[in-house]
Amino acid sequence: MALASLAASLPIAASASASAAAAARFRFRIGFRGMASASAVGAAAGAPARVGVVQMTSVGDVDANYATCSRLTKEAAASGVKFLCFPEVFSFIGSKDGESVKLAEPLDGPIMQRYCSLAKESGMWLSLGGFQEKGPDDSRQYNTHVLIDDSGKVRSSYRKIHLFDVDVPGNMVYKESRFTTAGDTIVAVDSPFGRLGLTVCYDLRFPELYQILRFKHQAQVLLVPSAFTKVTGEAHWEILLRARAIETQCYVIAAAQAGKHNEKRESYGDSIIIDPWGTVVARLPDRLSTGFAVADLDLSKVEAVRIRMPIAEHRKFDSDWKSSTKQ
């Protein structure tokens, strides 16, 4: 079957249900909030929507990071961008253990309110990945992906489920769970840019999350704000992102931290946007620079890929299977 020239206006293939085991373990939040249904959003989407993916080097200064985010937002607005995606820990990266917990705030606190005002003033939706949201007590925080609409309202939020507790070879030991409480809710939300699936960084290594977002909640665009380490980024960043795009037939927007934040921490960079066929359609020319790349999201491409390669109809593992393991 020739898939190089995909049709531009074909219906989205029917979605299969998610596994009962996953449904029992995590809650699901559907982000309608007065908007049209997912199918209506996809059907009504005509002209491609211009989106931007940010690359930056956050530091241990909330005001300095906001100044960078504000400048990039205004530049993106001038370029016609309607939806701008920022990386994980966009507002603060500390150099000492526990610093971020002390700065953590609720989503209605002054830090996030500045970004809400920025979105409203710019007339732009913002994806803010990895905000230090105040946790269940003073010693804990959530790593929260916040979605703000163009009126300045928090449209939805997702608390990172998979925490980065890893001894990176030749690098350093990370233990995110020391100060962070994991989330337990999978989040999909409607938007003018398609149905969005919200994730954060290390989630990328767990394909079942993205399978649920696609096949249970009909995601069309997957957001992966990240701060990949230099070592893991060199080995796996683009490969994992393209795999998630191909296996879900979704756009993937992956905003990345880049370069040295302090003496202890360095991020890989390489912010990219990938289409549902797995092709990189936007990236910054310099993997470590601060800036943004732009692409036009055409949801008809999502529809075309899914009808020509109908994996949603062919999936088997949501059904009951006999085990070959002898008890």
From TrEMBL:
Does the keyword 4Fe-4S feature in the UniProt annotation? Answer: no
Which UniProt keywords are present, listed alphabetically?
Hydrolase, Signal
Leader sequence range is 1-18
A Pfam match: CN_hydrolase
Please provide, alphabetically and separated by semicolons, the GO molecular function terms listed in this UniProt record.
hydrolase activity, acting on carbon-nitrogen (but not peptide) bonds
Coiled-coil residue spans: none
Identify the residues that the record assigns to the CN hydrolase domain, covering every copy.
49-299
- Identification of the protein by name: CN hydrolase domain-containing protein
User: From which organism does this entry originate?
Assistant: Urochloa decumbens
